[in-house]
Amino acid sequence: MLTSLYKRDLNLWCEDTVSKLKARNFENLDIENLIEEIASLANRDRRELRSRLVVLLEHLLKRKYVDNYYNFRGWELTIREQLNQIEALFEQSPSLKSFFSEILIDQYLFALSQVKIGYPQVNFPQDLGLSPDVSAFFQVIELDLAAFQLKSDYYSQS
After folding, report:
1. Using CA of residue 20, residue 21, residue 27, residue 32, what is the dihedral sign?
2. Helices 134-157 and 31-65: angle between axes, nearest 10 degrees
3. CB-count exposure of residue 86 (10 Å: 0-12, 13-18, 19+)
4. In Å, how far are 1, 7, 15, 20 from 4, measured between CA atoms?
5. Which of 33, 87, 153, 154: disulfide with 6, CB 3.0–4.6 Å?
6. DSSP of 133-154
7. Are 114 and 54 in contact (CB under 8 A)?
């Protein structure tokens, strides 16, 4: 019966499971599906980190190498948003920082392949040129954003 509730209505199953956990009613828990759901939580955060990192890298590449002044502000806003969301993930799950270091190069290569499709005339660097260390990575991105802002201020005054 518990498994059928899980298959019929995930939300109701979650509410039922929480109630049983609060009541310490461990013997009536749907352990198999509970294990599956907890495992999926870690996978969800890893997928989100991958996704946000690719978006950040795509927009960083476009902002640095695509000469299109009218898109600069939007790319910068997207970079900032992705940085903020990644930092929030790290606050919630600091262990994701080591995962970040593991996936950075692969995610860069994927982001690079995507921007090359949209901008085949641009010569993007094959090498990331950024440290896989989370703190160093974030510092360089923040410095890039500050430099972008200076350039934007210059263009807007011209």
Report:
1. positive
2. 40
3. buried
4. 5, 5, 15, 17
5. 33
6. SHHHHHHHHHHHHHHHHHHHHH
7. yes
Contact 64, 57 (CB under 8 A): no
Question: What number of CA atoms fall less than 13 Å from residue 138's CA on the CB side?
Answer: 14
Q: What is the pLDDT of residues 51-101, one digit of tens each?
A: 999 999 999 999 999 998 889 999 999 999 999 999 999 999 999 999 999
Q: What is the helix (H) or strand (E) element at residue 63, kind and residue range?
A: helix 31-65
DSSP state at residue 23: T
> Closest Cα partner for 68 from 140, 125, 143, 118?
118
Q: Which two tokens stand for residue 42?
A: 């870690």
Q: In the numeric block, which tokens belong to residue 65?
A: 């190498």
**Residue given tokens 């600091």 in the structure block:** 94
pTM of the model: 0.82
> What tokens appear for 79 in the block?
């970079």
Q: Which single residue is written with the structure tokens 């960083």?
A: 60
Digit-coded pLDDT (tens) for 17-42 = 999 999 999 999 999 999 999 989 87
Q: How far apart are CA 7 and CA 28, in angstroms?
A: 17
